[in-house]
Each structure stands twice: as C-alpha cells, then as structure tokens.
Amino acid sequence: MPKFELSYETISHKKVSAEHDVCFAIPTGKKVFVWFTFYQKRDVCYILECNRDKKIIQAIQLEGSSSLPLSYGTLLYGTLVSSEDGEKQKVLLDEIYYLEGNPWKHRSLRDKLSCWKYIFESLLPQTSWGDMFAFPVIWGVSFTENTQVYPSILPDNKKIGYPVHHLQYRSSYTVMPYLNIYIYKNKNVVMLPSQKKDKLPLLVQYDTTPSICHFRKPQYRYRTVFRVYADIQFDIYHLFACGKDNSKVYYNMAYIPNYKTSVMMNSLFRKIRENKNLDYIEESDDEDDFENVAEDKYVNLYKNLLMECEFHPKFKKWVPLKTVHPKSRIIHIMKL
Q: Which of 33, 151, 230, 231 could form a disulfide bond with 236, CB atoms 3.0-4.6 angstroms apart?
C-alpha cells in the first residue's frame, strides 16, 4: 500500500469559517481503507479494517476485473455500514488518497466530487461487487459573520438511511482541515443513555449552550478547576463552573489535544480495555458485551470529577490535566 498522510480532522474549537460550505453525514461503523491494486497478475480490491488508531487489523480480498483502471493504485477511505438485518454491508466512501497511482489528498473537494463520479462509474459495470460502495449524504451550507456555532442537528429535509456518527464540514475550494461536529437528538441536549435509570445524568438537566467567553480575563492565564462530565461520544467532555448559590453552570466542551490526554480521560470515565493493552483491539467482544447494545455501555454518564485544566490559547479551550480533591474550589462562571 502506498505511503500517505491521513486527512486532518478537528473538533469545533474555533469560530465558524465561511469557507466550510459542504456538510457530510459521516456514518457510524468500522473505518476501512479500500485499496485497488493487483496480485499475481490479477486485479484485486482489499477492504482493510482499521482500529481507533487507524492501524489495519483485518483484510478482505475481492476479485476484480482484469481491466479495472483503478487497480493501478487507488486508495480510498470510508465507513463499513451494515443493514438492519445484518445481511448486507456497504462501504460509504468519503476520502480519496490515491487515484490510479496519483496522490489526491491535497486536491480540492470540488475536484474530488467529479472524481467520485468516475470511480463509481468504473466499478458498477466491471465488478460483481461494485454496488457495495456508495457515497454518504452531503449538502451545501452557508454561514454569515453572525454565525456563532456550527449546526449540530441533521436538516429536516434530509432522509438518511444509515446511523450518523457526526457531521463533518468541508470546503469546496480550499484545502483545509475538516471540522467534526457531534450531533444530538435535540439542539443543545446531550444524548441520554438508552437504558432507563432512576436519575437522569446531570447533563440533560441543564442547558448546554456554551457560555460567552471573555478570553482576556486574568483567569485564562492560570490553571483552573472545573467539574467534568463525559459525553456519550468519545473524546467529548463537558465542563461545568460554579454559579449563583453554588449552582452548576455549563461552560463548554473541553479540548482533548492528543492521544495521551485521551487515554487519561478514558481511564477516568470509560470502560475501554484497549487503554491498558492494545492486543485487546484484535480480540472479539465477549458474549455479554456483544449482547449489550446500550449506547452508554462504555461510558459512565453519571460520574463527575473535579479536574485541573489549562487554557489552550490557539483553540480557545481548556485542556484537562489531572483530577483534584473533591472539595477543591471550582471556578465561578463570572471569572470566565
């Protein structure tokens, strides 16, 4: 497989960019590379399943046509999605790294969209499995100077036939990082766990509209203590400050800048075996884990910790550093 760099993606930590004019509905499912090449004079296609670190853990080989132009070296990326009955699978492709031996990572989305048309037209008539590949739902968007946040809700007029993991904003003309926004069932409401419980998580009892921030205040130069809750989505954590009469006030999401911080937060709030031993990634889930289909089976939505955080000036977000004593003083919202 040719050497390449993954497309850069980030979570919304900065102001809205008018250059992001297209939105992708990225599916929930296993991430895969799709590699068209040849093996022993035969054109083949490999479906390469990845783990969370984008390391290949499994490969499936598909026989291709003897005259498939894509086999000169085409590398694509997407998500493996299963039908409700589990009998059919589709790969929803959303990225082109190589096309017939030529690098395409740094081409504009406008160029790539015309290229996708060529790819699908090449596959359908020449292979028996070409119809397993498709494109995710996308739509155009436009932002003004007054737009404060990226939309995090699916448009009412869009019918999407697969579970959506997050929205991804891209630019048609400019090569720039993709912007990921995790969606919720209702605006400004953090997702509920699917199993009924006597007490609702604190997050759904509060308005989770981000507070207005005044970054020139002195507090942003010092380490600060917040009350932290995990979200059902990986690497999303919510910060609460102290308000009037010691009430809890939602501040904003934390920033998880690297793998080390992600592992630390997972160890505090989530049940992920891969944190302790990467060999677990290749192991199948046990029967109890497989039968548990609850969305919150890997995360404790009720747990909260006081954590010392440091402000990241570039992304204008607080980075969790460590847990502190449960009776530590939480920052007052007026200081932020």
A: 231
CA distances from 176 to 12, 88, 171, 262 (A): 14, 34, 7, 24
Q: For residue 195, give the DSSP letter.
A: S
**Token pair for residue 328?**
């530590």
**Which DSSP string corresponds to 106-122?**
TS-HHHHHHHHHHHHHH
Which residue bears the tokens 């747990």?
303
DSSP 69-97: GGGGSEEEEEEEEE-TTSS-EEEEEEEEE
Residues 173 and 217 in one domain: no
d(CA 19, CA 174): 7
Q: How many CA atoms lie within 13 A of 112 on its CB side?
A: 23
Tell me the C-alpha distance between 11 and 253, whole Å: 10
- Per-residue pLDDT tens digits of the chain, which is 336 residues long: 666 565 555 655 456 788 889 999 999 888 999 999 888 778 888 999 988 777 888 888 887 666 778 888 899 999 999 766 556 788 999 999 999 989 988 899 999 988 998 888 888 776 778 788 999 999 998 887 777 778 878 887 778 888 888 899 999 998 888 888 877 543 333 333 433 434 445 554 555 566 677 888 999 999 999 999 998 777 889 999 998 888 888 898 899 988 899 999 999 998 765 454 444 433 444 444 434 445 556 788 888 999 999 999 888 899 999 999 999 999 998 898
Q: What is the CATH number of the domain that holds 168?
A: 3.30.470.30
Q: Are 273 and 162 contained in the same domain?
A: no
Residue located via tokens 């968007």: 141
pTM beyond cutoff 0.85: no
> For residues 96 and 109, is the Cβ–Cβ distance under 8 A?
no
Residues spanned by the domain of 302: 202-335
